[in-house]
Design goal:
Elements (H helix, E strand, L loop, with lengths): L4 E4 L5 H12 L3 E6 L3 H12 L5 E5 L8 H11 L3 E6 L14 H25 L3 E6 L12 H21 L3 E8 L10 H8 L10 H13 L7 E4 L20
Parallel strand pairs: 1-2, 1-4, 2-3, 4-5, 5-6, 6-7
Helix pairs in contact: 3-4, 4-5
Length: 251
């Protein structure tokens, strides 16, 4: 009998590595996708193999045209028990609409929407059952034009999550996770994190465990599809807006 296996895209670093370790701990063999983070992916593979799990690295640049069918078939040939894709690979670059070139727009959409869209379709065709989990961003609750191309691509992936949930049911469940302040970028300092926390109703940033708990919930609850979990301490619902009662001179 084949062991259950999961493909995690962008698993050579940060959230992808976290989710890969968690899937291995749950008993999944792991297909690690990476592009530029080859060293991190290979190190992660060695780490997971040392725990007794089967693990292999699959390299692919999602910012260029690629054959999703061939990619999924390669992973499935190595891991016949493939039953889950975690679409975590992401391209992120801040720019408002007027500062966004065609190249930037297309690059953000190719990685953040086109790749998970195509991979999900190939997974449906060749695996036929299981789960797709799309990693989003709690920014999809906002209209932050400072990240125009990035945010539009992630909003589109959120809509695709719901659309695919209908199309792929009942054999495949499709859900999403929208993290908030959990693993800030390497260039973000403590002052930035403190500033973000000030806007979070629960008054704290998230933890690795809170993200992996959310992943476990999606994996284990087989009556759940088309849902997006905002793991952000309520930041995404902190949209009271301006009104008469909070107008400074309303008294």
């Amino acid at each position: 009998m084949n062991s259950p296996a999961a493909l995690i895209t962008g698993a050579g670093t940060r959230l992808g590595s976290l989710f890969a370790r968690h899937m291995a701990a749950l008993g999944y063999d792991v297909a690690i996708h990476c592009n530029s983070s080859q060293d991190g992916a290979k190190q992660l593979a060695r780490e997971l193999q040392s725990t007794g799990r089967q693990c292999e690295v699959f390299s692919m640049d999602f910012s260029e045209a690629f054959d999703a069918d061939e990619f999924i078939l390669q992973v499935q040939a190595r891991f016949p028990g493939l039953e889950c894709i975690i679409n975590n690979a992401s391209a992120y670059e801040a720019a408002p609409t007027a500062g966004t070139s065609r190249e930037l727009l297309e690059a953000q959409f190719r990685v953040n929407l086109v790749a998970p869209f195509l991979l999900a379709g190939s997974f449906k065709r060749y695996c036929g059952q299981g789960q797709v989990i799309n990693i989003l961003d709690n920014k999809i609750a906002y209209h932050q034009y400072q990240y125009a191309a990035y945010l539009l691509s992630k909003k589109s992936l959120a809509d695709f999550t719901k659309m695919a949930a209908l199309e792929f049911a009942p054999e495949i469940r499709v859900n999403g996770i929208a993290p908030g302040v959990t693993l800030p970028g390497e260039t973000r300092g403590n002052a930035y994190v403190d500033w973000r926390i000030a806007g979070i109703p629960l008054g704290k940033k998230g933890s690795d465990e809170q993200l992996t708990n959310s992943l476990s919930y999606l994996l284990q609850n087989d009556f759940l599809t088309g849902q997006i979990l905002y793991v952000d301490g309520g930041e995404s619902v902190n949209q009271v807006g301006r009104n008469h009662e909070n107008y400074p001179d309303s008294a």
